[in-house]
Design a protein that fits this description.
By secondary structure, this protein is an alpha/beta fold. It is 38% helix and 13% strand. Strands 6-8-9-10-7-11 form a six-stranded mixed β-sheet, sandwiched between helices. A five-stranded antiparallel β-sheet has the order 4-3-2-1-5. A hairpin with a 2-residue loop joins strand 12 and strand 13. The radius of gyration is 40 Å and the shape is elongated. About 6% of the residues have low confidence.
Length: 450
């Protein structure tokens, strides 16, 4: 067998494995120490560590904000994600501003520190004296103390025109009001004849509630009562009583009664339904505050030995417990035809400036459904429309002017009724009222008896 003359191929020697490059070790994380200062990544507020609890991965960091000492706690991993260590330069600025911030309990943020240090730079410090500066202005208004409570009302002096004789109301309403007033002025006789103190020990107490549509004379009647009794009117409304601070609305209510008693004035709550509405179920937000305010008001009504008058357009919103504490409810209904004719003439001061031949009865028919306040607007607008001529000697009110202004007032009320979705009954004016058939609690009359 022939032999292969070619030499044998040598077997390659395997190469030695190349060593992989070494992975650099993770950077050392400095351990947290109580007293270290950190800055929040988003708010830029300065914090210091005041406590560490746990071990290993379960350490809980307790930290407090410089300035107002607000404390929080976080897991160590979340803390490292949200905070960064403060640099020596930042700590130096913090230490310089800190006395001013602590004095005002202001949070130490980058902004507040800059404000204080900018002020310190302008103040020459005496040798050896610690620099201080006024703290930055507080963002939030401080809670007022009890002595700085605002006035819940204002004293109103009735004018000479605010008399019972100038009131144009339904007969039943006038009688109800006068009966309530007489219960005060004739209290000695009531005591002598009826021994009234056995059931009503407070000799000066009288609570009246005036309800009805807007512009029917409720406020004017309250002033007339004050004028008849020689008193002032301490008038309160919702905007003066309500407070955003917890507990201060109740204090305003109490203060209103105190102020009225000190001034020997009639306490008058205008638009009282906002304060006297029904208490609400405790499951609703704010129920505790609302119900406490109602309870305080009822307690003050029980204790007050004076005259209280309430007026509202929404009598049906009253809490039943409030209704029970009112001596007399008076409905100020819309005026009838005879009353409207008197109102038109009353609200034109100089009738001699009216053209001859004005049909007052026709105007009374045209103003059907309007309140006394609406008729006042008609008359004022008519006077202004009749006063356009450059020569005042030619200023006269005519039938056409009065009819035009009546139509304008009705049109505006009609537009308002449409927007509010109210039921219209009379030429664009909603005559529907709450509890419309009751003028006083004793007997009914119709809302409009034309």
């Amino acid at each position: 067998m022939p032999t292969n003359p070619s030499p044998a191929t040598p077997t390659p020697t395997p190469a030695a494995p190349v060593a992989a490059p070494a992975t650099p070790p993770p950077p050392a994380i400095s351990p947290l120490t109580i007293g270290d200062s950190f800055i929040h990544n988003e708010s830029a507020n300065f914090y210091r560590i005041v406590g560490l609890a746990g071990e290993g991965e379960n350490v809980i960091v307790v930290y407090a904000r410089y300035g107002d000492n607000l404390q929080r706690r976080l897991n160590i991993h979340s803390f490292r994600e949200r905070f960064r260590p403060a640099s020596p330069e930042e700590i130096a600025l913090l230490e310089r501003a800190l006395p001013s911030l602590v004095a005002s309990r202001t949070a130490a943020s980058s902004r507040s520190i800059e404000q204080v240090n900018a002020t310190l730079a302008e103040i020459p410090a005496e040798a050896g004296a610690q620099a201080s500066a006024p703290p930055p202005a507080r963002r939030r208004q401080p809670r007022p103390d009890e002595e700085s409570l605002s006035e819940p009302g204002v004293l109103v002096e009735p004018s000479a025109n605010d008399t019972m004789e100038n009131l144009i109301l339904h007969k039943e309403a006038i009688e109800a009001v006068l009966t309530g007033v007489d219960s005060i002025t004739r209290r000695p006789d009531l005591e002598r004849v009826w021994n009234l103190s056995r059931i009503v020990p407070q000799s000066g107490r009288c609570v009246l509630n005036f309800y009805g549509p807007p512009g029917t004379g409720k406020t004017r009647c309250a002033k007339a009562i004050a004028q008849k009794l020689g008193k002032k009117l301490y008038q309160c409304d919702y905007s003066q009583i309500i407070s955003r601070w917890y507990g201060h609305t109740a204090k305003h209510i109490q203060k209103a009664f105190v102020k009225a008693a000190e001034a020997n004035a009639i306490l008058f709550f205008d638009e009282a339904d906002s304060l006297l509405s029904r208490r609400i179920d405790m499951s609703h937000d704010g129920a505790t505050t609302v119900n406490q305010n109602r309870n305080v008001l009822m307690q003050e009504l029980d204790r007050f030995n004076g005259i209280v008058i309430m007026s509202t357009n929404l009598f049906t919103n009253y809490d039943e417990a409030i209704v029970r504490r009112v001596n007399r409810h008076v409905n100020f209904a819309l005026p009838n035809k005879e009353m409207r004719e008197k109102l038109i003439k009353l609200h034109i001061p100089n009738l001699e400036r009216c053209a001859t031949g004005i049909n007052w009865k026709a105007l009374a028919e045209d103003t059907y459904g309007l309140s006394g306040g609406d008729i006042l607007n008609v008359c004022v607008n008519s006077i202004e429309s009749a006063s356009r001529d450059p020569n005042p000697d030619l200023w006269y009110i005519t039938q056409a002017i009065l009819e035009k202004e009546v139509e304008r007032v009705k049109s505006s009320k009609d537009e308002n009724s449409k927007r509010n979705g109210k039921k219209r009954r009379v030429m664009g004016f909603n005559v529907q009222s709450q509890a419309s058939s009751s003028v006083v609690s004793d007997g009914p009359i119709s809302q409009l008896d034309d």
